[in-house]
Amino acid sequence: MHATDPTVFVDGDFDGIDLGDGVTVASPSDDNGPSDAACVVVAAPDAEVCDGVPTVLYTDVPPDAVDRPGRFDAYVRRGDRAALESQVRWLLASGDDAGAGGDVERAAEPRNDREWDRLKRLYEGTTELIAAETVEELYERAIGLTEDILEFDNSSFFHHDDEGFYVVANNDDLVGTGPIAAEMGLLGETYRTKRSFLVDDVRDHPEADPNDPSYRSAVSVPAGDDGVFQAISNEVGAYDETDLALAELLVSYVSETRSRIESEAAVRQSREQTERLHRGATELAAATSLDELFERTVEITDDILEFDISYVGVVEDGDIVPTAISSDAPADGAERVPLDDGGIAAEVYLSGTTDITDDVRDHPEARPVKRMYRAVLSVPIGDVGVFQAAAFTPAAFDERDAELAELLMAHVAVTAERIHAESRLREERDRSTALFEHVSDAAVAYDVEGGALTVRDVNRGFQSAFGYDADDVVGSDLLGRIVPPEPEPVPEPGADETIPELLVATGESYRGEVRRRTDGGVREFILNVVPLSPGEERGAGYAIYTDITERKTRESELERQNERLEEFANIVSHDLRNPLSVARGNLDLARETGEESRFDTAERALEQMEELIDDLLSLARRGQLVDETERVDLGVVARQAWATTDTADAELVTCQSIVVDADEDRLAELLANLFRNAVEHGGRDVRVEVGGVDGGFYVEDDGPGIEPDRRDVVFEPGETTDNGGIGYGLAIVESIAEAHGWTAIVTSGTTGGARFEFRA
């Protein structure tokens, strides 16, 4: 049957693979199983494999994660349909050659064990290719496979660019050779036609033109859209159809892996470029004049976006006036143009829409200053002006360039507006002083000289927010009064550590979050520093403080609440569902069978639910809160907690009298959960000891202890190794400890059991 109408069974939807005429693709059914197929394609790495039937694994699972990969005759990464079709056709062809009409048993006794061995070794060797992290490493490993598995002596990978072909991998130190003309011989023919060639004797091939007269036979395979693989031999007929098929398979693996590596590298490069652009955009905020801002803008576009020529034009009196241009640009690289006849730049400014012109010679409105300018990217800068980048080659810009330029120009527009605002503020200094008292936030007018800050005036908002009378503050050093004594967070390397209020001396503005000391304690503020008359070491300005302490507290509390809400949602949706399903299932079985033991199982499940709900309520209602703490005797509280806990035949030992500052009820709850945990995991006769350590106390038992690799997760809700446990006791323990300001750690006891230490 297979000789005339082979059937390929697939166990899923593989996007309709096309194996050509005369091959049937079907799914296994009750009437036809995998053993009836000429070839089988499976998606699951643990799928059963029929003896004597070639099987291809087509999956997303990496080869190194497949158990016993030798069970399969080939591996193809899911999504590479061309490689799948090629593998299946090769297996079918090999099966037809195996003998006697292509009988289904041919795989058990192949005509050529060496061919099958090479195929399987190639399949196993692809794990080395997939693990490559760079294209160079990929090609190096591929050449190794051509030597060790395909047994080719002279193999090369060629890459094509505008100048021709270059050798990018070779097993005879020829890397870098080139350029080789694209129209030359078999290499060029393979690249142009995207077809594979098997040449027994290059002297008989019309296109072959070897650069070494000793070359006789060759295998030539296209590698993606821009490459070719070749194996060369000095012997006539050195390669056969199997060599060609294996080479095609290897090249398909190399091409797919190269695409993945290049894609990941492009993503990394894009991410790094975006991060650099973000840092550069952040630096723009330090500009104090429009000229400085626009000069920095073209520096960033030249350095980070790597444009050939960058230019900023500002709109003044109906014209677009050149303000900044790349340092490498010619002196007359930009000129003043009127808005009503300013070409692409005017259109972009008036429409507020970015434009990409692939070639200015084809644009009816383009009026390039230099003929060498070909492609142009134009981005509006708000109401300020226009940014343009020019390239010396057509189609040099894409949407990605436009997006990054738009992102940067958005920062430029905001900073320009800020500079305008500061300029207007300085111009209106007198009016600002008159309005000083009407600012609702805390405001301070002050002078800076020689690094010292002297208060000239404070408004009523300052007196209300900080609690200091104006008479006590005016004329004094403000910083000594309001900067907290504790250090601010360590700044990033290279960051300016200057106190923001002092920046007015150099005419710099500032906006950011700070911590400042008030009469009622340290609070959080948004600080706006506005300079008025900058000098070298002196200046005047305003500091405006917006109190955000309550908002920050609410944000922190909301974040904690959201975390707890998510935690409880997960608990309710997962941990309650299991015992509820057990109870419901056993009740249904009790109704059907009348077995009373089912009621006992249901009751135990409901008891487990009740215990879980009690723990959930303990976490939900009291959370991390504690009532007022007092000095309590740890031993007394421990014995009280022991008496109220089901401890079976366990023994409690309190070593000495330890006094701790705690909420007695919550401390008893913490100890009871630890005692219960010790009995559950250490047995009914476990010995539990409570004693003191430097700065706190401990609870340890002589049970089996907790493995080191689990000690970081034992406090997580639902974490347990006891089939009967619910896993929230230790979560409650940690919650109570954190509410007291204690740090809870898990270690090993003196006898190898579990030891919990709590330190303030």
TrEMBL record:
It holds the Pfam family PAS_4. The keyword Translocase does not apply. The lineage of its organism: Archaea, Methanobacteriati, Methanobacteriota, Stenosarchaea group, Halobacteria. SMART domains: GAF (SM00065), HATPase_c (SM00387), HisKA (SM00388). GO terms for biological process: phosphorelay signal transduction system. This is histidine kinase. It catalyses: ATP + protein L-histidine = ADP + protein N-phospho-L-histidine. One of its GO terms (molecular function) is protein histidine kinase activity. It comes from Haloferax chudinovii. PROSITE patterns: HIS_KIN, PAS.
